[in-house]
Each structure stands twice: as structure tokens, then as C-alpha cells.
Design goal:
Oligomer: single chain
Order of helices and strands: EEEEE
Number of domains: 1
Largest sheet: 5 strands, antiparallel
Number of helices: 0
Shape: globular
Strand order of the largest sheet: 1-2-3-4-5
Number of strands: 5
């Protein structure tokens, strides 16, 4: 399976804006001060919770 990533060229740190597969499965990544979630093409939403070290 091939996954293509679209990265924000203006960000100080790497930010993946969305990804897509050959089967047209798409996923969008949501940022505020950092990554807070992702949403796929079927509108499923995942929230990222970080601890004090920045681990999920």
C-alpha cells in the first residue's frame, strides 16, 4: 500500500496536513498549538491526548 502525505511547508516543525492511499482513503490532521486530532473520509474523529513528556 502506498500512502501519500501532504506536509505544511510553512510550519517550523513538520506538520502533516493530510494523507491519502491508493484506495482513496483520506485522513486530515488538525492542529492548534500542536496536533490535536485526525479525521478520516468517513468522518471518524480521533483525539490525541498528550502527557507532560509529549507522549500520546
Amino acid at each position: 500500500m502506498v500512502i501519500c502525505y501532504n506536509v505544511n511547508p510553512e510550519a517550523v516543525l513538520n506538520q502533516v496536513l493530510f494523507s491519502a492511499t491508493e484506495q482513496d482513503n483520506q485522513c486530515w490532521y488538525i492542529y492548534v498549538l500542536g496536533l490535536i486530532g485526525q479525521e478520516d473520509s468517513t468522518r471518524n474523529y480521533l483525539t490525541y491526548h498528550f502527557d507532560l513528556r509529549g507522549s500520546t
